[in-house]
Design goal:
EC 1.11.1.7; heme; metal ion binding; lactoperoxidase activity; two-stranded parallel ribbon; globular; signal
């Protein structure tokens, strides 16, 4: 079931992003959000892997230079655009954003930004996979820069927990946000390429990562055999890869995290405390709400480095600057 999440926006939207507001297009393009939702729903019906792709696309847009649509630029094809970074390898869902933009341009030309479409599509993707339903502040404008070098310092699967915390902090995100945004791995898959080191050459002292539950290690190795096809994909959330739920955090607690960066969340006092906070004896009744906290972290991430007012532009097509 979906969870309706009421969020008091003023509590966590910084002054620099105060021009974002829920219902920004209410008068200028009243059907904007329903158009995006319809496009995402149709795309998901054709390809059930689209929600995870759209969620990843939003993260990859925001975590680089901010939520300003630079990840969408594909022209001119110089090889030096942000999307060309190996850190963005395998990004999908750009065609869904392009489709939504085309429909919106036919209804409200020059009004709805590509950056807002990405943020709305991510929310709709979460809702379609039984995740929380929440309001997305809009009013972003599209950036005018897309540079491959800007993606050099993105969080990586093999980053230590201290490096991950530092990279998130540099974007104004807390240790709690790190845990919750990593929990987006509740849907989607990863390639065996990202597990090779963890399974077969983890360190000089251990062939495999000792944090992997011993009962889980043979399962991972069977799915991703040594010297096998590194492009084989496996669910990031064991047992619940197509549904948005808290199972990803249960797996992290139990040593069933698939990728190293997820496992690292339980190897640090601060992030482990966040994970554990959702599993207290009376957690379901009196503890924090995972769904609401996740939605709040998504909104916080969605306000990173936004262009508003007269900054940036409203692109005519999402893949090229005006």
């Amino acid at each position: 079931m979906s969870w309706a999440v009421a969020i008091v926006m003023g509590l966590f939207i910084s002054t620099s992003t105060a021009q974002l507001q829920v219902g920004f297009y209410q008068n200028s393009c009243p059907n904007a959000e329903s158009v995006v939702a319809s496009v995402v729903r149709q795309a998901t019906q054709s390809d059930p892997t689209i929600p995870a792709a759209l969620l990843r696309l939003h993260f990859h847009d925001c975590i680089v230079q901010g939520c300003e649509g630079s990840i969408l630029i594909q022209s001119p094809a110089t090889g030096n655009l942000e999307k060309d970074s190996p850190n963005h390898a395998g990004l999908r869902g750009l065609d869904v954003i392009d489709n939504a933009k085309a429909q919106l341009e036919s209804q409200c030309p020059g009004i709805v930004s590509c950056a807002d479409i990405v943020a709305l599509a991510a929310r709709d993707a979460i809702t379609l996979t039984q995740g929380p339903q929440y309001d997305v502040p809009t009013g972003r404008r599209d950036g005018r820069v897309s540079n491959i070098a800007d993606a050099n310092n993105m969080p990586q699967v093999r980053d230590s927990i201290n490096v991950l915390k530092s990279k998130f902090s540099a974007k104004g995100l807390s240790d709690k946000d790190l845990v919750l945004l990593s929990a987006a791995h509740t849907i989607g898959t990863t390639a065996c390429f990202f597990l090779e080191n963890r399974l077969y050459s983890f360190s000089t002292n251990s062939q495999s990562d000792p944090s992997i539950n011993p009962s889980f290690l043979p399962e991972l190795q069977a799915q991703c055999p040594q010297n096998g096809n590194v492009n084989v994909r496996i669910p990031l959330d064991r047992g619940s890869g197509n549904i948005f739920d808290i199972q990803i955090l249960r797996n992290i607690r139990s040593g069933f995290a698939v990728i190293e960066s997820d496992a690292a969340l339980y190897q640090d006092d601060s992030t482990r405390a966040v994970v554990d906070s959702y599993f207290g004896l009376f957690g379901n009744l009196f503890g924090p709400s995972f769904e609401q906290d996740f939605a709040e972290s998504m909104v916080r991430m969605g306000s990173i480095g936004v262009h508003t007012g007269s900054d940036g532009e409203i692109r005519r097509v999402c893949s090229a600057f005006n």
